[in-house]
Amino acid sequence: MDAAALTFLALGLPFVAAAFAPALTRVLGHNAAWILALAPFAIFVHFAGFVAEIAKGEIITGGYAWIPSFNVSFSWLIDGLSLTFVLLISGIGALIVLYSGGYLKGHPQQGRFFSFILMFMGSMQGLVVSDSFLMLFVFWELTSITSFLLIGFDHGREAARRAALQALVVTGGGGLMLLAGLLILWNISGITQFSLLPAFGGELKESPFYLAVLLLVLGGAFTKSAQFPFHFWLPNAMEAPTPVSAYLHSATMVKAGVYLLMRLNPVLGGTPEWQILLPLFGVTTLVAGAALAVRQTDLKLMLAYTTMSSLGLLVMLTGLGMPHALEAAALYLVAHALFKGALFMVAGSIDHETGLRDLTRLGGLRSAMPLTFAIALLAALSMGGLLPSFGFLAKEEIYAALSGFDRRSMVFAALTMLGNALMFAVAFAIALKPFIGPKVHTPKHAHEAPLLLWLGPALLAVTGLAMALMSGLAHRLITSPMATAVAGQPRSVSVSLMPHIGVPLVLSGLTVLAGIAFYLNLARLRAAMTVILADIGWGPDRGFDQFLRGLVRFAVAVTRRLQGGRLDVYMTATFVLVAVVLLAVPFRYGEFPRAPFFSADVPLHELAIMAIAVAGLFAVVLAADRLTAIVSLGIQGFAVAMIFLLYGAPDLAFTQFMIETLSVVVLALVMTRLRLSPSDHRPLGEKLPDFALALACGLGFGLFLLKVTAAPFDATLTDFFNRYSKAVAHGENVVNVIIVDFRGTDTLGEIAVVMIAGLAILSLVRLRAGSLQRGEPVEIAAEEAKREERA
Amino acid sequence: MRSVIFRTVAPFLTGLMVLFSIFVLLRGHNAPGGGFIGGLIAVSALAIYGIAHGVETVRRAIFFHPMAIAGAGLFAATIAGLVSLVARVPFMTGLWIYPSVLGTEIPLSTVMLFDTGVYLVVIGAIGSVALSLEERGGS
User: Fold this and answer.
1) Which of A77-81, A273-277, A503-507 is predicted with the least confidence, judged by mean pLDDT?
2) Which residues of chain A make contact with B94, given a CB cutoff of 8 A?
3) Which of A79, A503, A553, A678 could lock A625 by a disulfide, CB 3.0 to 4.6 Å apart?
4) What Cα–Cα distance (Å) separates residue A221 from each residue in A218, A341, A537?
C-alpha cells in the first residue's frame, strides 16, 4: 500500500475506531482505552514517518478527486505546520483516550464518550491536513458538532446543555463566515487548494475583496479560537468532562482558529489590516484572559481562561509581522499544547482523587499525590517560562520578537509581560497551592492517581522537558519547518536553553519577578478583579443569552405577523401576488399577446369538450352547496384531461384523471372534517373581492398561456428525448423515461418531498384532532410564554 | 354512500384497481403509465375500500403503516440510484439485466426498482393522508 492510501486510512481511522468504541467498551470496560488508544497512536506513528522528509523542506500533497466538475478534491497538504499539528493531535489524542479510560472508569456511557472523542480527534486531524477549502470547512464544522456532543456529554444538566449549544452557535456561526470567506477566496483566485494559493498570493492582497476575505476568515478564526469578545463559550465549555477540556484546550478545537491564521499567513498576512487587527485582538484577549483567570478559584476555570490568553498571544504573534514573531508562535504553540494538556489532566486527577477543584479549599496533597505534584510542577515551569523548559524557549523567542525600541514593540512588550506574569501566577497557583501547606479534609480520601491518570500528563510534561534539552533536534525536526510553513519562506529557529544576556532575558526576568509578586498577592488580585467585574456587570456571556432571547422574540413576532393561522389570508395573499405578477409585468412592458387565432373548422367533439369545461365552471360557481361545487370542479378537470388526451399527451391525461378523482375525494373529506355550513352564506360584499381576484388570476393565466404558445416551439429537447429515449434508456414512453431515468435525481428529490409533505399533513391532522379533543389551542404564543417563565 | 351494492362491489373493485395499478406501473416504461400514475390508482382503490368498509379494515388489509410503505419506497428509489455507484458509473445511471425465466427473457432494471419506489411513496404518502382524513371525517 502506498503512502497516499495509508494517509487516507489514517484520516478515516478515528471514525472507524469511534464506530467500534461502544461495543468494545461494553466488553472490556474502561480497559478498552488501551486498545482504542492504538488508533491515534498508529496515526502518530504514520505521520511521524514524514518528519524527516518535511525537515528537509519538502511538502507532501496527495488526495482523490471528490467533485471534479467543481474542482473540489479530498486532498491533504502535509508541511511543517500541519505535521506539527497532526502529531500534537494524534499524540495527545492517544494520551487523552488513555486518560479518559481512567477518568470515566465505570461511567455508564464511557463507550459513547470514547466514540465522541475519537470522532472529535478525527475531525480535528482532517481539519489541519486539509488541502482543499471545502474539506477544511467540512472538518471545521465537524469539530463544532463533535465538540457540541462532548461539551453536552453530561446532558442531564442544564448548564452543560447551555454550554454545548453556546459553543455550537458561536463556532458554527464562525464556520459559516469562514465558508463565505473561502468561497470569495475561491472566486477571486479560481483556486480551491491551499497548496496552490501562495503562487497567487500577491494578487490577492491587491484585490478589492481582500478586506472582505480577511474579515470573514478572522470571523471564523476568532470565534473558534475564543478571541475577545467571542471568548465566552470557552470557559463555559468546562462543563465537559476534564479529558475533553484537556484535549480541547491543548491540541484541538481552539487551536483550529490559530491554525487557520497560520495557514493563511503567507497569503493574507503582511498587510496593514492584518498587522493591526490580529495583534489588537490578540493582545486584548491575552490580557483579558489572564485577568479573568486570576479571578477564578476553580482549577479548570483558571486553566480555561489562561488558554484564552495563550490563544490571544498566538494570534498576536501571528499578526505582529516582526522578526522572530512567527518562530515564537511556533515554539509557543507546541509548548502550550504540552503544558496545558498536562495541567488540565493534573487538575482532573486532583478532582478525581479528592472530589474538589476549588483552589481555596485544597492543600497539602504533596504527600498523598507526589507524582501528580511533580508533573504539575514540570508543566508549570513550562507555562511560567522558567528554565529548563520548552516554555522558556518560547518566552525567550517572544521577547526577542518584541525587543525593539519603537513604540509599537514597547506597547506590545509591556502588555505581553503583564499577561505572561499573570499566567505565571496562575500556573504556580495551580501547581503549588493544592499540594503545599497543611493537609485539608477532602470529600474523598486523597491518594495517588492510578496509572491511566498519570501516564498522559507525565508523558506530556517529560516531552516538554526533553524537547527543551534537545532543542537543536526539536528545532530542526519540528519548530523550524513549522515556522517556515507559517512564514511561507525558510525560517530557522535557534533559541536554546543557554541564556543569552540581552533585552529578551531582561524582559523575561522582569516577567518572572512580576509573576512572583502576583502569585504572592493572588488573593488580593482576585478580590480586586471580582469587584471590577461586578462593577462592569454586563459581559459577552450574558450578551449571548440576550441575543438569543432577542432572536427568538423577533422570530415569534415575525411568525405571528406572517403566519397568522387564517387560511383565507394566506390564500388571498398568494393569489393577489399571482395576479399582480401575471398582469403587472406584461402591462409594464407592453407584452400582451395578440388576439388568438381561432381555426374555423374546430371538430365538433373538441367544441363539445370545451363546452363541458365551461359548463363545469358555471356549475361550480352556481352550486347550491359546497359538496356539489367540489364535484362540479371535477367536471372541468375531466374536460381538461380529455383535451390532453386529444392532443397526444396520454400520460398527462391519465395523471390528470387520477388527480381530479383524488382531489375531489380529498377535498370532500376535508370539507366534512372542517364542519362548515353546507353552503357559503357570506354577503355579496364579501364575495365580490374574491370574485374579482379569481377573475384576475384566470385572466392573468390565460394571457400568459397565450403569450407562451405564441412563441415558436423549440423542439431541441423533444428531438433529443425522442432520439435517445429508446436508444439509451431502453424505454419508448418518453415521459416515463424522463421521469425515472434522464431526470431521475429530480424525481428522487420530488418523491422525498411528497413523503415529507405527507408526514407534515399527517401530523397536522393528528395535532388538530388532538388539540380539539383536549380543548386547548396550540399556539406559538403559549409555547413562548412557557419558555419565558422557565427563563 | 354505504349502499349494499357499493359495499359488495368495493372489495372486487379495489382488488381490480390495485392489480391494474401494478399493470400500469410495469408497462410504464414503454406505454402510458408509470409509478406515479400507478400509485394514484392504488390510492384511489384504498380510498374506495375505506369509504365502503371503514378505515380500520383498510389499515388491516395493507398491514403496514402507509408511511412505512412510503419510507420503503423512498429507500428503494435511493438504493436504485446507489446501485450504479457500485458498478462505478455515475449516480442514478440505469442498469439493465435480462435474466431468462422459463425461456422468456425478462428485462429488469434499476430504473424499474426506482419507479416501484415512486409507486410506493405515492401510495404511502397520499394514502396515509387520505386514510387519516377519512378516519376523522367519519367519526
Assistant:
1) A503-507
2) 729-730, 740-741, 744
3) A678
4) 5, 21, 27
Across residues A604-623, what is the average pLDDT? 89
Choosing from A520, A553, A580, the residue where a domain stops is A520
Report the phi/psi class of residue B94: left, alpha or beta, with left for phi > 0 and alpha for psi in -120 to 50. beta
Q: How high does pLDDT run on average in chain A?
A: 85
Q: Is the pLDDT of residue B13 over 90?
A: yes
Q: Quick check: is A78 in a domain?
A: no
Residue A715 is assigned to a structural domain of this protein = no
Average model confidence (pLDDT) across chain B:
87
Tell me if A147 sits within 8 A of A171, measured CB to CB.
Answer: yes
Q: Provide the pLDDT confidence category of residue B136 given band limits of 50, 70 and 90.
A: low
Chain B interface disruption, residue of A736, A742, A771, most B CBs within 10 A: A736
Report the amino acid identity of residue A138: V
- Residue B109 with chain A: CB contacts under 8 Å: 730
Matching residue, cell 469578545: A229
Phi, psi of A358 (to 5 degrees): -85, 120
- Please state, in angstroms and rounded to a whole number, the distance separating the CA atoms of residues A262 and A580: 54
Query: Domain boundaries in chain B?
Result: 4-138
- With CB atoms and an 8 Å threshold, state whether A732 touches B31: yes
Backbone dihedral region for residue A392 (phi beyond 0: left; psi -120 to 50: alpha; all else: beta): alpha
Q: Is A716 exposed, middle or buried (0-12, 13-18, 19+ CB in 10 A)?
A: exposed
Q: How far apart are CA A447 and CA A367, in angstroms?
A: 9
Contact A729 B114 (CB under 8 A): no
Residue A426 CA, chain-centre distance (Å), reads 31
pLDDT (0 to 100) of residue A768: 61
Q: What secondary structure does DSSP assign to A753-787, as a single string?
A: HHHHHHHHHHHHHHHHHHHHHHT----HHHHHHHH
Question: Inter-chain contact B137–A672, Cβ cutoff 8 Å?
Answer: yes
Comparing alpha-carbon positions, the chain B residue that sits nearest to A673 is B137
Task: Mark which of A495, A520, A545 sits at the end of a domain.
Answer: A520
Tell me the pLDDT tens digit for each residue of A106-150. Answer: 888 888 899 999 999 999 999 999 988 889 999 999 999 999 999
Q: How far is residue A480's CA from residue A499's CA, in Å, rounded to a whole number? A: 20
ipTM: 0.91
The number of domains in chain A is 2
Spell out which residues of chain B touch residue A739, defining contact as CB-CB under 8 Å.
Answer: 34-36, 118
- Out of A425-439, B13-27, B109-123, least confident range: A425-439
Q: Is residue A469 part of a domain?
A: yes
Beta strands of chain B (E only): which ranges?
A: 96-97, 100-101, 104-105, 108-109
Q: Do B114 and A747 touch (CB under 8 A)?
A: yes
Domain that holds residue A784: 743-791
Cα–Cα distance for residue pair A547/A233, rounded to 1 Å: 14
Question: Could you give the C-alpha distances from A199 to A59, A159, A568, A790, in angstroms and in order?
Answer: 14, 48, 61, 56
Q: Is the residue at A428 inside a domain?
A: yes
CA distance readout (Å), A445 to A240, A348, A366, A455: 24, 16, 14, 21
Residue A749 Cα, gap to closest chain B Cα (Å): 10
**Amino acid symbol at A76:** W
